[in-house]
């Protein structure tokens, strides 16, 4: 897929020497500190070829030949054969290994054999579908437009939709559009559904957790609709390297899946480097800021004229890094910026322009979030710098894969933050470079998710007796939905009896489908209007509901393309934030309070520590309320706190599942520490528990929430809320806990299935957490174990360890 | 691991939002309910009949209405072909046969469309014996849909010219979806589909603001419906009945549907009469103005010009008057009647939207047609002056002000360049003028 991009100027091929120069510059700066904890040399790999299959239509083979492809890589050939044999399968391929051919070849071949054939390609994002469109249009031109290929998503103009439904052989879409735009109107898609032969799921590994659990249910719905129209599509999936691609694919599709995990594509030589910022205070375990260090690494690479992509883990960090790098590499006066930002929230036109700039070399560096991690075609760059661990090994390899020339050397540098996970990875390189230990989990039978999709399914086609989703019998659920007024049973079938359109209110990605738009406050002085036409308010971006309260609360500094905006007003009801451009020397960080109430205990057990049992573990249903109550102003570069403010914002409430540990009073009372140390130790322990939990569950940090709260007198008893109030940010202000619960909750309504596994691996969790804290080289606690020392009492680490010693057998 | 349900805990299972009205749930049926408890009583109340076909049963009833609504009498057997062409330009000539017309209106379980919205009551009507025959099909529960659709299909086959109010974008696509979902009953073939929403908008929205059918009946046809159900409550009323609620609240929905059909039939007659003989039937200059717009849209420029002139002569309200003059000037320009166009623009020029356009048209005329750049420049200066004054008293939106100011300033700059150069230069630059402006 990725053809070598032609830079504006002839670029010298980067060699091992180029990078070794950069690396010794990096290592040389801090003498005595081993900042490069791992340097792996991944040698170039030769291609393994197979001939084009003899059943391939001559015109298709000719079209590929004209693109320079006259034989296949071995994995492409295996995929073609499995597809031909009508099997469902998943191909595991790294970045830039020609995976699109794995599905395009067999699908196009079927269309050329029978022009009634239809295929649906699903990509996790709109941008990826756009990218595939270009590739397929290219093939369509070679084949005299014998097939129609269209994207169908939220950006598709209404007047084009009908033509797409009639004339599209291949529809490129995303699960969200399938869910809200296609399935509820399946009668309009009759031609597609009657002839649906292939469903292609690309970037399969992204369908895990919440999104994956939703997708599994969307696929259950499409299976019903396809069956209704008499078709039974075959699944072709592509995934990045994870430990269980076959398992994930069969959980999502509920089919038996073949797995192709050989890789016949060639690759250039690559260096993979782990960079651990040096300690500045060994006692406190404080390391140099990883953002500053990542900036430095990127600067060294960019200074060698190596085209570089920098990944950050949050929007905020993208903008901070962008600011640093743009300052370091200013454009010539009047010219466009050499370094650009790229993340969700930028408008599509802006993104396309940046992608082009990267391909043709005008853009020398880009600072991105995971938005650029997937297969968007930006060509291949020379180097990739990751500011912080991406959260999973699969993501890290994909980010690293953004740098990689077929000829010449590329380099990937992962700069560790002081987060426990990062430290664990850079100090245990074998964990990373060995066989992928990562499992993608989905929970298609999460009742909250399943019931929501059951509603959508009933809207699409009445539910017949005996229908099942997976192993879940739907009759009982339908009866309950009927009681609640959503369904009505008639002639044995369950029919939808609501005016509302169920898919509209169900988001596949997050808690709510609400987005906040960021609007530039229009100035009355019309000479100052920047780009506002026709008096329409200028929308500069969007943020989703869950991050809105922390990023665009009143008085927040919102960063977009390196520009700072001050939030003048947040219209919560209208989901609008009004901002004005400013230039200040700080950014803002929201303070959030969280409260947890236990609703129902599913299982509970005493923890038999080395003393009499003084604690217990549980999992069950909880209600989580959170509220942003204020913010801090943090100065750039020095990270000083230069002020704060209070905020009154609406509460957010969610019903979910949690795993928790209860520390009984005798245990706490037996600890030889002062009250404030004990409190601090409890929060420190939770910090470390959370880190180990995300590692064990292979989940994103965002998927788990934490809170400390007083244990209720007995479950189910209604008590005033404020009695359980817990501020995870500031233990010093809290009153003493008598018997605290340490909660790790699923950050998603209804839970995504983490609580029960945590309950089961509890012993391992506690042991590993103790290893993490005990093994940490800091003296009194640091961000890598129990949290930053400045915010905790001096004896946090000691206290947390003491508690763990009581808990571990 | 079969999931256990904690009642009330699942957000997704929490009760659906309901309209405030709470209905006592009647006697519940067993595991396999047949028709809802109120169905028999409803049949009695409506004096309806249970119809049976190979797909099952549904409820049907017929009423003949002798009275005509307001002052519109049922038409003779055929319509004026020219008038019909204005409404349905692509339809075959045979649509003038009034006997083939079938009025249709549905009551549905929602307005969202999609595959989960049911047309639980389908009303159709046709002219018969000097009055209107109305027939209604009702699903006593959703499983009766197939039988209902078959019955409707038979009626449409008899009278294949479908006539609706907003049915082109709502009722008919919804019914097509329902037919598709049966997988066995083909959607009926229509000879033509005439929808009266857009003509009604053109004719009466300026006067009435709203073109809801009941409003049109009242203000255009002079007929007051009296008590009527609130449309928004219709789906919930049906759901309440399905769940065993009393059938009485459904009766006004049947009446509402009948009134919609009668109103539609009368409205159709009125619109066709207007289109056939605007000068005699048009009671109001705004109606004439609306007719002109319909004619213009259908490409009947001559007729449109005549009607615009008529409507202007009969004193339109200021907004409509400006719009009519603007359209008339545009048509005159297209016909090469520059004197009329110039006269209209000259009178219109000012700070209104149409007035600014008039300035622009005049400037184009003097710049490109009569080759008087100085005169054009003077007009543009005047326009800028008017614009400034309007902005000072906030008579124009800031964005519109900005856009117009920019347009006029650019034009002025060009004109001043032109006026300053020799005639030869000016002529040369003519060939590079903006395309589309020089006609």
Describe the overall structure.
The complex is a heterodimer of chains A (809) and B (439). Chain A has 809 residues and is of the alpha/beta class. In chain A, the strands form 8 sheets. In chain A, strands 1-11-18-17-14-16-15 form a 7-stranded mixed β-sheet, sandwiched between helices. Chain A has a 7-stranded parallel β-sheet with strand order 6-7-5-8-9-4-10, with helices on both faces. In chain A, strands 28, 29, 30, 31, 32 and 33 form a 6-stranded antiparallel β-sheet that branches. Residues 1-10, 523-535 and 716-732 of chain A have low confidence and may be disordered. Chain B has 17 helices and 7 strands. In chain B, helix 11 (301-313) runs antiparallel to helix 12. Chain B has a 7-stranded mixed β-sheet with strand order 1-2-5-4-3-6-7, with helices on both faces. Chains A and B meet through helix 17, strand 20, helix 18, strand 21 and strand 22 of A and helix 4, helix 7 and helix 16 of B.
A few lines on this structure:
The complex is a heterodimer of chains A (809) and B (439). Chain A has 809 residues and is α/β, with parallel strands linked by helices.
């Amino acid at each position: 897929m990725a053809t070598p991009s032609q830079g504006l100027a002839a670029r010298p091929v980067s060699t091992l020497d180029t990078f070794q120069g950069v690396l010794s510059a990096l290592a040389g700066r801090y003498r005595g500190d081993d900042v490069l904890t791992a340097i792996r040399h991944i040698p170039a790999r030769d291609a393994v070829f197979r001939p084009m299959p003899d059943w391939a239509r001559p015109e298709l083979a000719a079209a590929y030949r004209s693109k320079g492809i006259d034989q296949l890589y071995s994995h492409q050939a295996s995929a073609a054969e499995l597809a031909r044999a009508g099997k469902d399968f998943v191909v595991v391929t790294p970045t830039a290994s020609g995976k699109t051919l794995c599905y395009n070849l067999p699908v196009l071949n079927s269309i050329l054999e029978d022009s009634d054939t239809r295929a649906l390609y699903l990509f996790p994002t709109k941008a990826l579908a756009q990218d595939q469109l270009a590739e397929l249009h290219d093939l369509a031109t070679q084949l005299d437009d014998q097939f129609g290929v269209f994207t169908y998503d939220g950006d598709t103009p209404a007047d084009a939709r009908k033509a797409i439904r009639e004339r599209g052989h291949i529809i490129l879409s995303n699960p969200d559009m399938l869910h809200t735009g296609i399935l509820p109107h399946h009668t309009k898609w009759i031609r597609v559904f009657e002839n649906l032969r292939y469903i292609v799921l690309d970037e399969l590994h992204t369908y895990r957790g919440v999104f994956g659990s939703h997708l599994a249910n969307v696929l259950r719905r499409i299976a019903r609709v396809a069956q209704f129209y008499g078709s039974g599509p075959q699944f072709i999936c592509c995934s990045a390297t994870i430990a269980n691609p076959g398992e994930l694919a069969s959980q999502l599709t509920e089919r038996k899946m073949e797995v192709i995990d050989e890789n016949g594509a060639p690759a250039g030589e690559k260096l993979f480097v782990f960079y651990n910022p040096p300690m500045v205070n060994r006692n406190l375990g404080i390391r140099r800021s990883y953002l500053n260090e990542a900036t430095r690494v990127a600067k060294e690479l960019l200074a060698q004229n190596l085209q570089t992509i920098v990944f950050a883990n949050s929007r905020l960090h993208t903008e901070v890094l962008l600011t640093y790098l743009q300052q370091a590499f200013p454009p010539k006066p009047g010219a466009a910026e050499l370094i650009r930002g790229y993340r969700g929230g930028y408008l599509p036109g802006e993104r396309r322009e940046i992608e082009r700039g990267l391909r043709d070399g005008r853009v020398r560096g880009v600072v991105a979030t995971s938005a650029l991690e997937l297969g968007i075609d930006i060509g291949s760059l020379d180097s990739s710098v990751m500011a912080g661990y991406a959260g999973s090994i699969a993501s890290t390899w994909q980010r690293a894969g953004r740098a990689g020339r077929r000829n010449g050397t590329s380099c990937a540098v992962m700069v560790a933050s002081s987060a426990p996970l990062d430290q664990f990875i850079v100090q245990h390189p074998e964990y990373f470079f060995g066989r992928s230990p990562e499992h993608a989990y989905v929970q298609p039978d999460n009742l909250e998710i399943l019931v929501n999709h059951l509603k959508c399914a009933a809207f699409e086609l009445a539910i017949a007796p005996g229908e099942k989703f997976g192993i879940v019998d739907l009759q009982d659920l339908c009866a309950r939905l009927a009681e609640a007024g959503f369904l009505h049973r008639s002639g044995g079938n369950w029919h939808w009896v609501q005016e509302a359109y169920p898919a509209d209110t169900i988001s596949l990605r997050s808690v709510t489908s609400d987005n906040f738009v960021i609007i530039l406050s229009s100035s009355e002085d019309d000479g100052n209007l920047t780009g506002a036409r026709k008096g329409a308010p200028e929308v500069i971006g969007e943020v989703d509901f869950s991050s809105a309260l922390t990023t665009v609360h009143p008085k927040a500094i919102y960063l977009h393309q390196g520009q700072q905006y001050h939030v003048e007003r947040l219209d919560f009801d209208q989901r609008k934030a009004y901002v004005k451009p400013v230039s200040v020397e700080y950014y803002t960080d929201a303070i959030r309070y969280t409260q947890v109430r236990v609703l129902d205990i599913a299982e509970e057990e005493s923890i038999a520590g080395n003393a009499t049992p003084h604690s217990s573990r549980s999992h069950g249903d909880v209600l989580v309320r959170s509220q942003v109550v204020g913010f801090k102003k943090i100065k750039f570069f020095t990270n000083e706190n230069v002020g704060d403010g209070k905020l009154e914002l609406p509460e957010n409430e969610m019903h979910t599942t949690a795993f928790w540990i209860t520390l009984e009073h005798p245990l706490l009372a037996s600890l030889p520490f002062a009250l404030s140390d004990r409190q601090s130790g409890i929060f420190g322990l939770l910090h470390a528990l959370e880190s180990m939990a995300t590692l064990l569950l292979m989940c994103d940090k965002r998927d788990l929430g934490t809170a400390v709260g007083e244990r209720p007198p007995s479950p189910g008893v209604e008590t005033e809320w404020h009695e359980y109030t817990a501020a995870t940010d500031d233990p010093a202000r809290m009153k003493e806990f008598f018997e605290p619960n340490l909660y790790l909750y699923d950050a998603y309504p209804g839970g995504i299935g983490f609580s029960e596994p945590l309950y089961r691996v509890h012993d391992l969790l506690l042991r590993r957490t103790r290893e993490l804290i005990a093994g940490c080289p800091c003296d009194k606690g640091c961000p890598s174990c129990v949290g930053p020392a400045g915010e905790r009492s001096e004896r946090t680490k000691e206290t947390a360890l003491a508690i763990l010693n009581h808990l571990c057998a | 691991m079969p999931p256990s349900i904690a009642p009330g805990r699942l957000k997704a299972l929490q009760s659906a939002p309901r309209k405030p009205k709470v209905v006592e749930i009647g006697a519940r049926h067993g595991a396999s309910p047949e028709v809802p408890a109120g169905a028999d009583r409803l049949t009695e109340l409506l004096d309806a009949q249970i119809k049976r076909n190979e797909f099952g049963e549904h409820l049907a009833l017929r009423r003949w209405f002798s009275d005509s609504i307001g002052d519109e009498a049922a038409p003779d057997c055929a319509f004026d072909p020219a008038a019909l062409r204005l409404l349905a330009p692509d339809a075959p000539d045979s649509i003038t046969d009034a006997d083939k017309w079938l009025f249709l209106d549905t009551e549905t379980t929602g307005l969202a469309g999609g595959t989960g919205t049911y047309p639980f009551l389908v009303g159709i009507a046709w002219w018969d014996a000097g009055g209107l025959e109305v027939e209604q099909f009702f699903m006593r529960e959703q499983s009766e849909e197939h039988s209902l659709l078959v019955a409707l299909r038979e009626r449409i086959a008899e009278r294949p010219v479908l006539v609706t109010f907003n049915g082109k974008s709502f009722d008919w696509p919804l019914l097509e979806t329902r037919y598709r979902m049966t997988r066995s009953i083909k959607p009926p073939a229509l000879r033509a589909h005439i929808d009266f929403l857009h003509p009604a908008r053109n004719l009466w929205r300026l006067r009435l603001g709203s073109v809801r059918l009941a409003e049109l009946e009242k203000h255009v046809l002079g007929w007051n419906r009296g008590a009527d159900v609130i449309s928004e409550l219709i789906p919930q009323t049906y759901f309440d009945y399905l769940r065993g609620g009393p059938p009485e609240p459904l009766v006004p929905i049947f009446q509402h549907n009948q009134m919609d059909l009668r109103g539609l039939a009368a409205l159709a007659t009125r619109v066709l009469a207007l289109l056939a003989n605007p000068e005699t039937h048009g009671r109001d200059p705004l109606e004439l103005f609306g007719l002109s717009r319909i004619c213009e849209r259908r490409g009947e420029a001559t007729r449109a010009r005549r009607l615009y002139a008529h409507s202007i002569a009969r004193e339109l309200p200021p907004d409509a008057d400006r719009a009519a003059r603007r359209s008339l000037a545009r048509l005159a320009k297209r016909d090469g009647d520059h004197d009329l166009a110039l006269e209209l623009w000259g009178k219109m020029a000012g700070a209104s939207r149409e007035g600014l356009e008039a300035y622009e048209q005049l400037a184009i005329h003097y710049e490109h047609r009569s080759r008087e750049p100085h005169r054009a420049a003077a007009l543009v200066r005047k326009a800028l002056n008017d614009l400034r004054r309007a902005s000072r008293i906030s008579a124009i939106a800031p964005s519109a002000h900005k856009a117009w100011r920019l347009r006029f300033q650019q034009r002025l700059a060009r004109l001043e360049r032109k006026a300053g150069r020799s005639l030869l230069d000016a002529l040369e630059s003519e060939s590079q003028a903006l395309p589309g402006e020089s006609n």
